[in-house]
Amino acid sequence: MRAEAGESRGSAESNQKIRSKVESRMLGLDRNRLSWWDHWRALASYQLPRRYKWLVTANEATRGSAINNRIVDSTSMLAARTLTSGLLSGLTNPATPWFKFEIDGFSDPGSDVVLWLAECQRRMSTVFQESNFYNSMAVMYFDLVVFGTAAVLIYDDFDDVIRCFNPCLGEYYVDVDNKHRVVVFYRKFVMTIAQVVAEFGEENCSDSVRRLYHEGGTALTQEIICAHGLEPNDDALYGVPKRFKFRECYWEWGSSQDLLLRKKGYVEFPGFVARWDVVGNDPYGRSPGMDALGDDKQLQKETVRKASAIDKMVNPPLKADIQLKNQPASLLPGGITYVNGYGRDRPGLEPIFTVMPPIAELKQDIAEIQDRIRRTFFNNLFTDISNLDTVRTASEIRARVEEKLVMLPVIKRLDNEALAPSIERTWAIMQRAGLLPPPPAGAPANGFIAIRYISPFAMAMRAAETTAMERSMAFGGNLVAVDPSVLDNYDLDATVHLYTAALGADMRMLRTDEERDALRGQRAQQAQQKQMMETGSQLVSGAKVLSDTQVGGGQNALQAMLGGGAVGPGGGEAPV
């Protein structure tokens, strides 16, 4: 596979200037992220503890220790999982096509341009399937619904064409440009000695890393902190050619100032940063997890109190006369404990204790909180249909889904911040590697290739278009009874093409205009031949009838030929 950009190690002086600049910017990004950092830590504690890094620490021995001690009720985790699964299947379902390519002015299903675009789509879908793209998207959706911000890096790969990476929240920093697009991405993360050498090459590593690498054994698993900077290529200091819009560099955090692990340029941003909802020029997004955090805290506290109340019912605190100290007592069901002098005031038997906490009220309040959390995570969008008590029509179910999708504004944002960058990045990698077919002769030299999404969510959002077509055709059909000529207003061929395109179906299922016209001409010719054959058959049948008719001769024959009756002996007409 052809490389995306040339890589250079650079001189010690230039590397030192680069290191000074990128480390200074990272410190500024770290300061701006501090308030978000505290919020993410609370979200991780209650909803998704394993996808967050509080501190980037090398050789951390407690990395696998339990860190979800605050999670007693897993409703938020399950609700986030449901929303994640719904987004994955509704936007980027691995089992069905969810995108297609179009060029304005080329819609004929049989044209070379349309067939070329369909082949490009098929090849890119294969790349997505064979790589780890969909696994990475599943992790990205989970980060997005809980934390509101999720990042994916997409690099070219010799074996799978692309290789996706999910930086862990807490490792990276982002910033936006004047158009509020994320174009700056910095991070600190850990890698083992073996990973560093395999990724960047031994010649680019520091002396300490090379020494540990040659030492081998357990030294290969030792971790170091690496830093990564990715930003617009607007400074000649880096030495990256201006044709590359973005530049990146890797370096060992805390090592010598004159060393860089890698310096590289990119024509397009090598990945994307998706956000659920954004306010103003904030670089980080807000999420359903943030909206549900207050309910989640209340749920955990009430769940603990409910368990404590049940425990007090089963094993409550006791009080006893001082005379019972160091005396045997039976707390088993049906057991009796005898107390000296107890029967003077209370004759007969009675329970030792009675604890009746309001369990029913606690359970009802907890159920309300759980339902509120599920709705905050839009679970009703995916589960209401299966929870219906009565059978509904397909039209009613479709209308309910369309109504709920309006409540999910993140769909269009994901189209712009996640799906389109993924497709454009993969297209560029495949094109440089020669994995896309050459465009046909009829394709425009600088034609804009548009991405059309045909996922279930995208089709549901565009359902209003097909509904308008159906209502118009139904209205015209009702007027046919009054005036049949009203159908002259409709171009039925164009309507079929528009309806099929609006549904997102493959346009290759429709015949080309030439094939359609040829088929209609053939059908018309067959109908004409059939009519001629029927006319000829009627003529032959009439001739046979005439030949079998007894008309006599002379005047009677002449009269029969003229269509009259036979002339009788008396000069009058007689029946033939």
Structural class: alpha+beta
Order of helices and strands: HHHEHHEEEEHHEEEEHHHHHHEHHHHHEE
Question: What gap, in angstroms, lies between the N and C termini?
Answer: 97 Å
How confident overall, as mean pLDDT? 83
Radius of gyration: 39 Å
Number of strands: 12
Short note summarizing the structure:
This protein is of the alpha+beta class. The chain has 18 helices and twelve strands. It has a domain at 12-57 and 74-291.
Write the SSE topology.
Layout: H1 12-32, H2 34-46, H3 75-91, E1 99-103, H4 112-130, H5 133-147, E2 149-157, E3 161-165, E4 172-176, E5 182-192, H6 193-200, H7 207-215, E6 223-232, E7 246-252, E8 262-266, E9 271-275, H8 288-291, H9 293-314, H10 359-376, H11 380-383, H12 394-405, H13 410-432, E10 449-453, H14 456-461, H15 463-479, H16 492-503, H17 513-547, H18 555-561, E11 566-567, E12 573-574
Antiparallel strand pairs: 1-10, 2-3, 2-9, 4-5, 5-6, 6-7, 7-8, 11-12
Describe the structure.
With 576 residues, this protein is an alpha+beta fold. 45% of the residues lie in helices and 12% in strands. The chain has a domain at 12-57 and 74-291. The strands form four sheets. The chain has a five-stranded antiparallel sheet. The protein has a three-stranded antiparallel sheet with strand order 3-2-9. Helix 3 (75-91) packs across helix 5 (133-147) and helix 6 packs across helix 7 (207-215). The radius of gyration is 39 Å and the shape is flat.
